[in-house]
Amino acid sequence: MTTDSAAASARATVYGYPRQGPDRELKKAIEGYWKGHVTADALEAVAAELRRTTWRELAAAGVHEVPTGDFSFYDHVLDTTVMVGAIPARHREVVAADPLDGYFAMARGTQDVAPLEMTKWFDTNYHYLVPELGPDTVFTTHPAQQVAALREALALGLTARPVLVGPVTYLLLAKPAPGAPAGFDPLTLLDRLLPVYAEVLADLRAAGAQWVQLDEPALVQDRTRAELNAAARAYRDLGALTQRPKLLVASYFDRLGDALPVLAKAPVEGLALDFTGSAAADLDALAAVGGLPGKRLIAGVVDGRNIWTNDLEESLAVLGTLLALTDRVDVAASCSLLHVPLDAARERGIEPQVRRWLAFAKQKTGEIVTLARGLAQGTGAIAGELAANHADLSSRAGSPITHDPAVRARTAAVIEADARRSQGYSERAAAQRAHLGLPLLPTTTIGSFPQTGELRAARADLRAGRIDTAGYEERVKAEISEVISFQEKAGLDVLVHGEAERNDMVQYFAEQLTGYLATQHGWVQSYGTRYVRPPILAGDVSRPEPMTVRWTSYAQSLTRKPVKGMLTGPVTMLAWSFVRDDQPLRDTARQVALALRDEVDDLEGAGTSVIQVDEPALRETLPLRAADRPAYLAWATEAFRLSTSGVRPDTQIHTHMCYAEFGDIVQAIDDLDADVISLEAARSHMQVARELAAHGYPREAGPGVYDIHSPRVPSPQEAAELLRTGLRAIPAERLWVNPDCGLKTRGWPETRSSLENLVTAARTVREELSPS
Q1: What is the predicted pLDDT for the residue at 710?
Q2: Are 26 and 528 in contact (CB under 8 A)?
Q3: Burial grade of 218 (CB within 10 A; 0-12, 13-18, 19 or more)
Q4: Max Cα separation, the chain?
Q5: Rounded CA gap, 142 and 152, in Å?
Q6: Candidate list 521, 654, 656, 709, residue with the active-site label
Q7: pTM for the predicted model, two decimal places
Q8: CA quadruple 383, 389, 393, 399: dihedral positive or negative?
Q9: Which pairing describes strands 270-274 and 246-250: parallel, antiparallel, or unpaired?
Q10: If we measure between CA atoms, which residue out of 377, 325, 380 comes closest to residue 2?
Q11: Taking Cα atoms as reference points, which of 412, 409, 306, 400 lies closest to residue 351?
Q12: Angle at 645 between CA 643 and CA 647, to 5 degrees
């Protein structure tokens, strides 16, 4: 091994790429298929063309080895479930009748069959479908999708590397299937799963794969010795296979820690490691284990999760250090580029110099190729790129966009008392009950109602100049009036205005706060066909004027029932944006919290008695390593309290969280000091209610009884049974009744039926608790 040979052989590659197409062609084709407007063959044709276009563009940009297997109709973990034949019993009949419809049934459910549970992919805002495994699970090999994608790429004359979820991560992400014995650990199925992976690897080798990448991001989390031993056994067995391609084991999102020597010693031909952010600690750890002699290293030195242009000189320094530690160094992003938008060049609404600070998937691919060329040929070969990069970094650092002295002075003046309510919860609860007069098991929704086609058309007409602002606002008022009218007729107790004026729960606020940039085409997949456009938090944040008071007050004027003010919390405003990386997150969170505090105060001043500040990202942004969590949770919970602690005791503060594992942040949920929390619970069968009870959570809670990410309409009996399950953990005087999440993505017919059934269920259970 020599540094010169390792450098000269450096190539560029990526682990994955945005799936949707430049204009979300995949989303439109899939939703057309669901509606019966697009045939299965037409859907497959759209997908195939998107894959071919992506591979050709990557190759033309200078990527030597393109990924296959990263494309998905819905989710790559669900694709792995299909590949290993782990179909839940309730889905087998529909899968057997039509594999594509069965696939979507597992993802979305049907009226008769519940979907798989969905939760966050590590600490990202991408959602995956949770495998359900039990002691009776039988794995079978179904690699047709992976083999076909590889053959497509090879037929184009490209060098291709299939990318699969690794067996250890797959099992660690799984949950016990319904009916599995208490305490069942899916990892005990490893010896049963490995032969299936062996068959998949053999099939990929036969189809022409020289390398296969097995992603093991679960190993960057804190793992027990037994789990690390399982990883060692898995790669000992897979490495010992004779009928296989070369194996590349990949990790990302954080440092490997104790798992690094396990993988370094494994009989595999290569590792792909993340060297950005906290994961950069693996650079020293790699040297400590003696490097990777005889192995290929793919170095993730370009941040695959944020959109700021890379510091090329800094990355080259890391790559130069790595040259002495292995036989071959290739260059990549830190993870799949699935987590960033496609092309910053399309953002014509952003000032050109500011746009040069940004790197979406296409620009990151260019950075990767540039770094590989600089590593292989020397910095002289990329002198022009280095000079331009230095100018862009300097422009950003010196821009007035990034520094507002007034905001910084206000943030620096915050004291501990600013983040504490004036009275404890028991006193507040008594004041709120007297003020609001709500019944037992009060019913509400999370905030948003369906965004109708008419409303979207009106928004498009406003952008195009076909209607004026007054015409658009009349359309919004009509929607709000309809939402309020429906909720009153349905019998809900605490109403919402439906958020008709909002394009997105983060973007709407970002467009009204200083320091943020909005994109036109910056779509990123959240789950399935749900795409969001995360705003870009580029500078210091303040609120020039009220953002929600007008519409909340209008809704309140239409009813005597309380209408919730609806805001997005400071942590979620950070997590669901591309956040600035030039100052500590704690400082940015405080800035956003103070801006929201102004809005909360104005809502209360306008007569709003219930204010919900959503924090669904609190768990999502939790660091993957336990040692990093206390500091994060301290500033995250402080930011929430800073935004909500200026109100009177009789003003009820709500928060909301969804689609994450809450058990390990129950203390942080308590520390938020919200009066009411609503949480996703329908797919997990009220697990969070049990977790709150085990903690001794003292405040009010609404574990969801309606799974809004499925088209299913839950019956009154189904919702009532979930309520009864919740009551076994939470006393009736502290239990709320609500859906899992907002209703923006649902249609009106199913929304009406589901909420009417939810109210019926609440009344039924109330009567059981207080029979007349």
Answers
A1: 83
A2: no
A3: buried
A4: 86
A5: 18
A6: 709
A7: 0.90
A8: positive
A9: parallel
A10: 325
A11: 400
A12: 110
Mean pLDDT score of the chain: 95
CA 619-622-624 angle, 5° bins: 130
Strand 118-120 to 127-129 pairing: antiparallel
Task: Give yes or no for a contact between 193 and 84, defined as CB atoms under 8 angstroms apart.
Answer: yes
Q: pLDDT of 493-523, one tens digit each?
A: 999 999 999 988 999 999 999 999 999 999 9
Catalytic residue check, 390: no
* Partner residues linked to 248 by β-bridges: 213, 270
- Give the separation between CA 166 and CA 234, rounded to whole angstroms: 10
pLDDT in tens, 158-203: 999 999 999 999 999 999 999 999 999 999 999 999 999 999 999 9
Grouping H, G, I as helix, E, B as strand and the rest as coil, residue 27 is helix
The type of residue at 217 is P
Residue 767 pLDDT: 95
State the residue for tokens 């943020």: 516
Helix and strand totals (H; E) in the chain: 30, 20
Query: How far, in Å, CA of 760 to CA of 132, rounded?
Result: 31
pLDDT tens digits along 696-742: 999 999 999 999 888 889 999 999 999 999 999 999 999 999 999 99
DSSP letter for 181, please.
Answer: P
Q: Are 253 and 122 in contact (CB under 8 A)?
A: yes
HSE of 156 in the Cβ direction (CA atoms, 13 Å)? 23
335 neighbors 318 (Cβ within 8 angstroms): no
Q: Which two tokens stand for residue 234?
A: 């898995």
Q: Residue 371 is encoded by which pair of tokens?
A: 């770094």
3 state DSSP class of 105:
helix
Q: Please tell me whether residue 623 adopts helix, strand or coil conformation.
A: coil
| β-pair type (536-537, 516-517) | antiparallel
CA pair distance 90, 638, nearest whole angstrom = 44
- Interatomic CA distance for residues 113 and 365, integer angstroms: 41
CB 297 within 8 A of CB 330: yes
The letter for the amino acid at 145 is Q
d(CA 521, CA 750): 30
DSSP letters of 233-296? HHHHHHHT-SS--EEEEE--SS--TTHHHHHHHSS-SEEEEE-SGGGGHHHHHHHHTT-EEEEE
Whole-number Cα distances in Å, 728 to 392, 674, 717, 736, 765: 58, 22, 17, 14, 13
Residue 579: name the closest of 169, 92, 125 by CA. 125
Q: List, in order, residues 6 or more apart from 215 with CB less than 8 Å away.
A: 15, 163, 164, 165, 166, 169, 250, 251, 252
Quickly count: other Cβ atoms within 10 Å of residue 148's Cβ: 14
Residues 413-430: tens digit of each pLDDT: 999 999 999 999 999 999
In this structure, the strands spanning 610-614 and 160-165 are unpaired
How crowded is residue 632: how many other Cβ atoms within 10 Å of its Cβ? 18
| Separation between Cα atoms, residue 303 and residue 481, nearest integer Å | 45
Other beta carbons less than 10 A from residue 662's beta carbon: 23
Strand (E) or helix (H) holding 119: strand 118-120
CA 57 to chain centre: 26
What residues contact residue 541 under an 8 Å CB cut-off, 6+ apart? Answer: 407, 513, 514, 515, 516, 588, 591, 592, 595
